[in-house]
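for the writeup, i need someone to sanity check this before i put it in the appendix. the sequnce is what the collaborator sent (i think, or maybe the updated version? ugh). structure was predicted straight from it, no edits. if anything looks off just tell me and ill rerun, i have time this weekend
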Amino acid sequence: MEILIQLFSGLVGAIIGGAMAVWGSMKALNTTMANLERAEIRRMRVECVANLAGLRFVLGEVKAGQIPVVPDAEIAKLMFELNRISMLWADNADVLKSVRDFHAEPGTKDRLLALIRTC
C-alpha cells in the first residue's frame, strides 16, 4: 500500500511539474514575442521619421515663375513614408489627425515638420 501512495504522489508531482514547466515556457515565449514586436515597431517608427526628415526638401518653397525640379523617385519615397505613418501609428489618434491635417491642404514644409513632431 505504501508503494502505491509513493507511486501516486510521484505521478501527481510529475504532472504538476510538467504543467508548470509548459505554462512557464509559454509565458516566456509570449512575453519575448511581445517585446520583440514592440521593439520592431519602434525601429520602424524611428526609421520612418528619419526618412521623412530627410525628405523634407521635396516640399521645397515654390518661387514665383519657377517650377520646382524634384526627381520622381524622391516624391515616391516621400509618399511611401507618408502612407506608412497610418499603419505604424494606427493606435495614436493625434498622429492620425496630423496626417489628415497634412493632406487637407497642399503639403508644406511647415505641415510636414508639425507631422514629424507629432510622431
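The mean pLDDT is 86. The radius of gyration is 27 Å.
thx in advance!!
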